[in-house]
Amino acid sequence: MTEDRTEEQRKSYRPIDAKGFRESIGRNWGPVDRSVVLPDGLAEAAAEHRRQLAAALPGRRIAIAAGHSPVRSNDTDYRFRADSDFVWLTGCQAEGAVLVISADGDSTLYLRETAGQDEVDFFANARDGELWIGPVPGLKDWSDALGIACRPLEELSSAVRGAVPFMLATYGVDPVLDGLVRTSPYDGNTLRQTLAELRRIKDDWEIDQLREAVAASVQAFADVARELPEAVRGGGERWLEGTFDRRARSAGNGVGYASIVAAGNHAPVLHWVRNDGAVREGDVILLDAGVETRTLYTADVTRTFPVTGEYTSAQRQVYDLVHQAQLAALDAVRPGAPYRAFQYEAMRVLVEGLRDWGLIDVSLDEALGPDGQQHRRYVVCGLGHYIGLDVHDCDAARPETYFAADLEVGMALAVEPGLYFHPNDETVPPELRGIGIRIEDNVVVHADRTEILTADLPITADGLEQWVKANLPG
Q1: pLDDT band at 117, cuts 50/70/90?
Q2: Which among 180, 199, 218 is the end of a domain?
Q3: Of 34, 152, 224, 472, which is the most exposed, with the fewest CB atoms less than 10 Å away?
Q4: Is 405 inside any structural domain?
Q5: pTM above 0.90, yes or no
């Protein structure tokens, strides 16, 4: 008998297969609150966005997927973040959901229905079951919150039946939708382009979301400044990254993109996201980071400030030139101005400064001409972009509507001139090597003014020195 029990113990054992467990697990559960709480105005804004899309593509059937979490390692996933176009059209962040807009403009949201407490998925599905992940809103909960018809995801196939080739759909976001609707690359690009071009103009609700994202980011920058002594004592860039992340997670959904926390010689590296270096007295910190709201709108802010509260003369020399470029760029942001105007003005100031320093020896016209660009060694990146649900928003727009268009009321932009002198760049004087400076403000174009959302963060060298000292503990 003992021998039989030992053999039984060698077999695979799963409690969820036990008869007693299965008979008891589905009984005696009380009510659960699955209601969806949304910010005021979200459902109305999303409904208007759907109306705009239907008007831009009249008579077309459209399907947009929320997507799924990518695998991080083995059986663990990254935290889910819904597709930006899907969120713009629905306000919903349910994994696996699909929005279908009919040819007459009616919308239906297809979602995975929550497994009941008497169903196997309730306790056996570690990825989606409520026993494992907590209460999940059901179809009625989403419908009540968003004011949109919601149907079980299992009905999606019949909803899109006969859609080939008469449906536009996002491709590569959800394999289920990809299998149901064979959208050509051209059609998929048309849908993404249309959405990107519509999203260039923010409505009042969206602008409020960006204000919220920036306000939280300004708080997070101050948090980082307060932790500079701990970073110098050994916490390094990692400590400052974690400090910003804590505020981003508590004030919003998290960070809107991988934060750049670049100290010392790392500051000239445009996308320094390793954030694993030391922080030393005498360094400047280039902090490029933004909080993403719970509605997924993100700020994109950069300040470059001295660890001890005082720039060296060389650091200040570079900073002051970038600051002049920023002022010139901001002055060029106005309705009707070409989109490239603010970038041109910033680049003009930088080129003139580099010429004065002897780092380039060609005329301004040659440097800024298509066959010149000698200054790009020190200014490799662009100097601005749209912001919104994506940190580099509306990238799928056609070049003629992104780069060649004029600025319009409701556009939200990041304006970010900078200079980057790498520590091993022998074309610059030794005292300038290893200095990277960027200033990035978030702005909104209004009919009568440019609203600088980041105005609470100083941009002058003197202002940033005072700001650091005011935030340092003690």
Answers
A1: confident
A2: 199
A3: 152
A4: yes
A5: yes
